[in-house]
Amino acid sequence: MKLTEELRKAMRITVDYTNMTEKYLGDKGISQKTLDAQRRLAKAAHTYVSRNRGKDELFMGWTELPYNQAEVVADILTTAKHIRRNFDTFVVLGIGGSALGPTMAFNALCHLHYNDLPKSKRKGPKFYVEDNVDPVRMKELLDVIDVTRTCFNVISKSGATSETMAQYLIISDLLKKAGVNIRDNVIFTTDASRGNLVKISKELGGVKSYVLGDGVGGRFSELSPVGLLPAAVLGIDIKALLKGAAYMDKLCKPSDMYRNPALMCATLQYIAMQSGKNIGVLMPYSDNLRYVSDWYAQLWAESLGKNVHLDGRPCNIGQTPVKALGVTDQHSQVQLYTEGPYDKVVTFLSIENYKEKTPIPHGCENIPDVAFLGGHTMEELIQAENKATAYALTKAGRLNYTIRLPELNAFTLGELLFLFELQTAYAGAMFDIDTFNQPGVEAGKKATFALLGKPGYELQRSDLDNAAPDEKYII
Ligand code: PA5
Q1: Between β-strands 400-407 and 14-16, what pairing exists: parallel, antiparallel or unpaired?
Q2: Is 46 an active-site residue?
Q3: Which of 23, 166, 211, 301 shows its CA 20 to 30 Å from the CA of 153?
Q4: List 119, 121, 177, 331, catalytic entry
Q5: CA-CA distances (angstroms) from residue 329 to 118, 285, 304, 314, 353?
Q6: Is 445 a catalytic residue?
Q7: For residue 160, how far is its CA from the centre of ligand 1 (angstroms)?
Q8: What is the rounded CA–CA span in Å between residue 90 and residue 93?
Q9: Are strands 314-317 and 306-308 parallel, antiparallel or unpaired?
Q10: Pick the catalytic residue: 130, 163, 222, 302?
Q11: Would you call 377 exposed, middle or buried from its count of C-beta atoms within 10 A (0-12, 13-18, 19+)?
């Protein structure tokens, strides 16, 4: 994609928060006074994030990913070419931040039935992201792939995540039994020097590996090799993805929230959360954007769900992310959004130009209830339904705003990801919490180690045994 300044502007995504305001929602909306009152806090959050950009020790290395990867991008493109030539299938083994980004980009920018397309119509090998240890799923993946013709990208920052490492053990055993040199079919994406994948790579005589920098946590890693290698294998324009992120970064330079889209989103959510809106619905009107909601759910929930402020004062912060899909969920959840408790903010993701219009032919001329649809396009229909839902919510006094993409491509996806990442960092700064840790996730990982007998976790094991279910409460 050749990106002139004009094209960048045409591809600029916008935030429309009309339906959050008192002017349109009456007393259920946010008044200008309330918004203005947060201007200083927003500015302080912006200063905090700007001042700490790129600092690995604060896990803010992700802010520089759009700028500091020229070499690694070149290497990834060469590797991706090799993979496309030599393998039928590419499988990501990872979980959480090591899986949600690749899934999201795949779904957003590839054909919705990519794996069903004939090879000649795909830009890369078949693609799977395995982010669970459901034994059925693993077995059934193995039913449809030939491990000898598959490249496995094992993604784990720590190399100590039980799920990913169990998958690795299964795959490496199968490769060995099939007489394949593991090194030929495996690529690691992991920490630079620490972690088990580094050790395994050494044992195997050096596995092709990509580094997940110290300052880049899992949920902020999509623009690192975690997301870039799978995307490049799929033929996605990863340079455009990074340029889109850089463009959003530029749009978010102003410290005034009225001129900074991510800061405005963070401020709106902050105000909403302070008034009890502890559910955040993300509702893309696009099947391609459906997994953005999964990725965002982790980003928002794991970053803001905290029980302590930076100075140690206790708190319970967070907003529960809910995933909805337009128009599908209009026919299930929207009833609740319109008439249920006033505890939600709905964020719509809208597209101005879908890559397909799909005309609706004329027909059923004697049935006016159906005939009116003829001559329109499915694009017009989905956009009308998006507008209608926003209107209905607004009429019912429900907070909602729209992030609008002129079209969906690698550049605008990069913009969107960076918008959400900055929004999360700003919101965390406003709440004065550690946005980038995840002690709650670590606690579950450790308990799993204990249950499966990992040395060093014996004490926790006996604690877990004492917490076994009480017969008294089982009916
Ligand atoms: O965002 C995070 O830090 C987590 O979701 C991790 O990505 C997830 O737990 C996987 O960890 P790892 O990459 O160490 O295997």
Answers
A1: antiparallel
A2: no
A3: 301
A4: 331
A5: 31, 10, 26, 37, 21
A6: yes
A7: 10
A8: 10
A9: antiparallel
A10: 302
A11: middle
> What's the whole-number mean pLDDT along residues 186-194?
91
Q: What is the rounded CA–CA span in Å between residue 395 and residue 457?
A: 55
If residue 187 lies in a helix (H) or strand (E), which one and from where to where?
strand 186-190
pLDDT at 1: 60
Please check whether residue 294 is in contact with residue 100, taking contact to mean a CB–CB distance below 8 angstroms. Answer: yes
Task: Return the structure tokens found at 403.
Answer: 């992030």
61-238: which CATH number, 3.40.910.10, 3.40.720.10, 1.10.10.200, 3.40.50.10490? Answer: 3.40.50.10490
- CATH 3.40.50.10490 in the chain is located at 5-56+239-431, 61-238
Q: Which protein residues touch ligand 1 with a CB less than 6 Å away?
A: 95-98, 156-158, 161, 164, 217-219, 302, 438, 441
> Which amino acid would we find at residue 30?
I
Query: pTM to 2 decimals?
Result: 0.95
pLDDT digits (tens, 9 = 90+) for 336-354: 999 999 999 999 999 999 9
Which are the contacts of 228, defined by CB distance < 8 A and separation ≥ 6? 69, 72, 73, 76, 238, 241
* Residue 209: strand pairing partners: 188
- How far apart are alpha carbons 98 and 167 in whole angstroms? 14
User: By the 8 A CB rule, do 248 and 89 touch?
Assistant: no
Site to probe by mutation for ligand 1, drawn from 92, 98, 219 as the one with most ligand atoms within 8 Å of Cβ, is: 98
Write the pLDDT tens digit of every residue in 274-300: 999 999 999 999 999 999 999 999 999
Name which of 122, 187, 185 is nearest 148 in CA terms.
Answer: 185
The answer to whether 155 and 129 are in contact (CB under 8 A) is no
User: In the structure, what pLDDT confidence band is assigned to residue 242 with cuts at 50, 70 and 90?
Assistant: very high
Residue 136 has which token pair?
């059925």
Which tens digit of pLDDT belongs to each residue from 414-427?
999 999 999 999 99
Amino acid at 18: T
